[in-house]
Amino acid sequence: MKIAVLKEAAADESRVSATPETVKKFVALGAEMAVEAGAGEGATMSDADYAAAGATLGDRAATLKDADIIFGVQGPDPASIGGAKPGAWIVAGMNPFGERARVDAYAAGGYEALAMEFMPRITRAQSMDILSSQSNLAGYKSVLLAAAEYGRAFPMMMTAAGTVSAARAFVMGVGVAGLQAIATARRLGAQVSATDVRSATKEQIQSLGAK
User: Fold this and answer.
1) Residue 125 maps to a domain
2) How many domains are there within the chain?
3) What count of Cα atoms within 13 Å lies in the side-chain half-sphere of residue 118?
4) Angle between helix 130-150 and 176-187 (nearest 10)
């Protein structure tokens, strides 16, 4: 079985659908791994790292040739995978409701599209749950971006010139992203409060030191 890992084409997309560590695991299972040159650059993973893990590097055409499965973070442009064989599986985040034309183009090309964001969030499928991992990172990154834009320090600062009060952060929604945002803001020293429509989240909020 040949698995192709494509370089993401969307603007500002720095993620990659398979790391060298993941590639190494697939190779150990007997898969042939083909990685498009430069696929991991945005995530600071070099072509040499993939080669050392057992992957074959090449341009998109060579990567797609005879591939049984095509990996992507976002679904690739149908026009860019014209060299893939009919029946190949495209495994990525598809956004099928927002990108219906793209999904229809996959069907017209004879491809099988697996929308990973629709993977059931059950115990058996936890290792394939892309939403939780990305939501976790989104919650973390959102606080870092807020701290950069805030223009002041998050923690309370006591100096010879006086005391600067801690920043107050308010988190709306306490799902996976919200919980990580609370934890990150607390670690940065902010006073955090949060809200959610579900009363059951009160205990989770308080367990992280927020109100």
Assistant:
1) no
2) 2
3) 9
4) 40
pLDDT of 147 over the 90 cut: yes
CB neighbour class for 16 (10 Å; exposed up to 12, middle 13-18, buried from 19): buried
The answer to whether 112 and 94 have CB atoms below 8 angstroms apart is: no
Q: What ranges make up the beta strands (E) of the chain? A: 2-5, 32-36, 56-58, 69-74, 89-93, 112-115, 157-159, 162-164, 168-172, 191-195
Q: Are 24 and 108 within one domain? A: yes
pLDDT at 90 over 90: yes
Question: Which token pair is 196?
Answer: 């959610």
Model-level pTM? 0.81
pLDDT reading at 125 higher than 90: no
Judge whether 45 and 16 are in contact, CB under 8 Å.
yes
